[in-house]
Amino acid sequence: MKEISVFHVFKYMMYELGLRKQFKPSMTVLQMKLYQLTRLLHDHYKDVYDHLESHEISSTLYAAPWFLTLFASQFPLGFVARVFDMVFVQ
């Protein structure tokens, strides 16, 4: 892939998909996403939420890298490729 194409994909992700907002210094968008994940766990997977809370594991510990790298930092390449495919299909 040519450098200019990669730049356009990056620009699309940052501006069109809104990923740039989670990298701003305050990281309020990232904090909001982490809160939303916590609430979803609490509301739909109470057992998982309770288990994580009992061990004092916050969503920041496991989910922040997921959101900041679109799952690329901690998952197998095949899974990451599928996530990226879903992002770029939009």
TrEMBL record:
Coiled-coil annotated residue ranges, if any: none
Pfam families from the UniProt entry: RabGap-TBC_2
Name of the protein in its database record: Rab-GAP TBC domain-containing protein
Domain spans labelled Rab-GAP TBC: 1-90
Family matches, as Gene3D superfamilies: Ypt/Rab-GAP domain of gyp1p, domain 3 (1.10.472.80)
Organism placement in taxonomy: Eukaryota, Metazoa, Spiralia, Lophotrochozoa, Mollusca
Native source species: Arion vulgaris
PANTHER family associated with the record: GTPASE ACTIVATING PROTEIN, RAB GTPASE-ACTIVATING PROTEIN 1-LIKE
